[in-house]
Design goal:
It is a single chain. α2 packs across α3 and α7 packs across α9. 44% of the residues lie in helices and 12% in strands. The chain starts with 6 loop residues before the first strand and ends in a 30-residue tail after the last helix. With 310 residues, it is of the alpha/beta class.
């Protein structure tokens, strides 16, 4: 199917337009590249091929990140697998526990919370509450990065499949809100290395997971900080980021239902009784699928498996 044509399918939320470069909306050239990518990786004894983890939706994330350049896509996915082994991702998934979550939440809230109007999981970080001294008394940079990786893995294997079941078509990206209210430049620079490493992990090893990214309450001097951060991001990522100093409520409510947006950002949700929105982890990933349902069942009508992929 030509990408000039609108690839649509029916879903639980009505007519769904399949974005270009996804299963169900590939050009003949892209399909050929995907087939070759799959064949080359699965037949290479030096590549840790795992069908469940290297499904077509995942392979396409790496191909899109490198504009379907087969050589560069191979370089990227081989580097990602090398990093997974060195960082111990499988062990993190199996054994890592972030017991200090509630304490860390006081000084650096990072959390998933419900979904936006397109079914994406919403991810929120609040840098304005950052207290570096107390944060690193409660945890360490290494443990923060391990938590990040664990959440990426859960995002791919739990959150996205659950969101896909609800809307009836593949959901492959997140909607992120980064709140900079009351952030000082000194605060940022004290955690700059952690932020940069987190950005690298997301961009290089979990590509094509960003759908929408809103930076809100950006201070006057943020342009200088953004100039530093932007150098670490690719052009495609930068174009997905919207920066606002004020007026974010109206913008966010166009993308997120009020009942799904925490009240401090202009919504109506408070998650009372469970420690507030930042500790609730509210979302469809806690719903139990119907008997016999799988991560792909809700997407059967698209002829594409649910994303095993952020």
């Amino acid at each position: 199917m030509s990408q000039a044509q609108a690839a649509t399918t029916s879903s639980g939320s009505g007519s769904y337009v399949i974005p270009p470069g996804r299963l169900g909306n590939l050009t003949p050239e892209q399909q050929t590249t995907l087939d070759q990518f799959r064949t080359d990786l699965s037949s290479d004894a030096n590549f840790p091929w795992t069908p469940a983890r290297h499904d077509d939706a995942t392979l396409l994330r790496f191909l899109r990140a490198r504009k379907f350049d087969l050589v560069r896509s191979k370089e990227m996915i081989y580097a990602a697998e090398k990093w997974r082994k060195e960082f111990g991702v499988d062990d993190i998934v199996a054994n890592f526990k972030f017991e200090e979550k509630e304490e860390v939440n006081k000084y650096y809230p990072q959390f998933y919370h419900k979904t936006d109007k397109e079914g994406r999981p919403i991810y929120i970080e609040v840098l304005g509450k950052l207290d570096v001294g107390k944060l690193y008394a409660a945890t360490s940079e290494d443990r923060l990065l391990k938590r990040l990786v664990l959440e990426y893995e859960r995002f791919l294997t739990e959150r996205l499949p659950a969101c896909s079941r609800v809307v009836g078509h593949p959901v492959e990206t997140s909607c992120t809100i980064l709140d900079l209210n009351n952030v000082g430049l000194m605060q940022f620079y004290k955690v700059k290395n952690t932020v940069m490493e987190a950005a690298k992990i997301g961009q290089d090893y979990y590509p094509e997971c960003m759908g929408k990214f809103y930076i809100i309450n950006a201070p006057y001097l943020f342009s200088g900080v953004w100039g530093v951060v932007k150098m670490w991001l690719d052009e495609v990522t930068v174009k997905k980021i919207q920066i606002m100093s004020n007026g974010h409520k109206e913008v966010l409510l166009k993308q997120i239902d009020a009942g799904n947006l925490p009240s401090e950002f202009g919504g109506s949700c408070r998650c009372a009784g469970v420690g507030g929105c930042s500790l609730s982890d509210a979302g469809p990933w806690h719903d139990v699928p119907a008997a016999g349902a799988s991560a792909t069942s809700a997407t059967a009508s698209t002829s594409a498996p649910a994303p095993a992929t952020t």
